[in-house]
Amino acid sequence: MSKMNNLLLYKNDSMKLLTFYRKIKSLSEGSSEKLARNLCDDVELFDELPVIKRVNKDEKPLDYREKNSKRQGDPQGEKQINPKSDKTSDKKGEHKRNEEHIAMDFFKNCKTNAERYDISVGYVLDYQTPIGGNLEYLYNGERIQNPDYKEKHNYSPGKCDLMSYNKHDDIIYILELKDEDSKEPLISAVVEAYTYLKLFDKDALRDNMKRIYPELGINANTDFVAAPLIYKGGKQYKELKYENVRKLIDKMDEKVFVYSGDKENYDVEEYKE
Questions:
Q1: What is the residue-wise DSSP string for 214-253?
Q2: Residue 96, SS3?
Q3: Has residue 263 got a pLDDT over 90?
Q4: How confident is the model at residue 251, as a pLDDT?
Q5: DSSP letter at 137?
Q6: 3 state SS of 260
Q7: Longest Cα–Cα distance in the chain
Q8: Which residues share a beta bridge with 164?
C-alpha cells in the first residue's frame, strides 16, 4: 500500500486523527494537495476527537498555565528548552532560530510592545501550552492511548506553539508556528492547529486565561480559531497558492497569519488572497 493510501486510512478512524498531523509532516507538495482535497469532504470527523478535560467536575478547574508560570520567555529559566539549542545550522552554515525560541520571542515582544500585534493575532497569552494542561486524561477517565500501538501505549497530545487573544474580534487564536526553514507542508500546520482546537477544554481554557489576564476582556463567549503562523516567503507561504489546501483552510474556518522580520522585530499580518 502506498504512503498516501496509508494516510487516507486515518480519516476512517477518528481516534487515529490524534496522531494524523504527525504523519503528514513529510508529505510532498503534490501529496498535500491530494490529501487536502480528500479531507475537505471529511472535516466533520475532527468533531469526534475527544476533549481532554477533568473527569471529576467538582475538582478545581483544569490549569493550562499557572499564574506564576516559569514560562516567561527566557531560555535560561525553561526546563523544556535547552539553551544550547538556541540556534540550529542549515546546509549553508547559517544559524536560524528554532520554533520554540521564536515563540518565546513573540511572547516577550508582546509584553513590551503589545500594540505591535494588536490588529493581527492580538495579545500573546502563552507559548508551549500543554494540550492536556496538568492532566492527560480523556473525558471518560481513560489515559490517552496512541492508536498506532496494538498494546497500551500512553500518548502525549502535544503542545500549542502560541496562543493569543484579539480583543477586537473576541477570539483566542490557537497558533501553529513554522520557522522560515521548516520543510513541513502547510497542510501539517493546518491539521495540527485544528486538532489542538478540538482537544482543548475551551471552557477551562477561557477561565484559566481570564484568571491570568483579567484586564484583557476574555469572557464566556470568547470564540476560538485555529491559525497557522508561517514565515513570509517560506515553504508554507508558497503553498498558499494551492487550491485544495486553501479550500481546507476555509472549511476548517481557519485564518492564516504571516510573520516577517527577526527576534525583537517580528511583524505579523493576516494573509489575504
A1: TTS---TT-EEEEEEEEETTSHHHHGGG-HHHHHHHHHTT
A2: strand
A3: no
A4: 97
A5: B
A6: strand
A7: 56
A8: 124, 173
What would the pLDDT profile of 119-177 be if each residue is shown by its tens digit? Answer: 999 999 999 998 877 665 555 555 555 555 555 555 667 789 999 999 999 999 999 99
Radius of gyration of the chain (CA): 18
**What is the distance between the terminal CA atoms of the chain, rounded to a whole angstrom?**
37
* DSSP letter (8 states) at residue 80: S
Nearest C-alpha neighbor of 259 from the set 194, 192, 173? 173
Q: Which residue has the cell 540550529?
A: 88
Task: Give the Å distances, CA to CA, from 186 to 16, 30, 156, 199, 244.
Answer: 20, 12, 22, 20, 11
Neighbouring-strand partners of residue 172: 165, 224
pLDDT, tens only, 162-212? 999 999 999 999 999 999 999 999 999 999 999 999 989 899 899 999 999
Amino acid identity of 51?
A: V
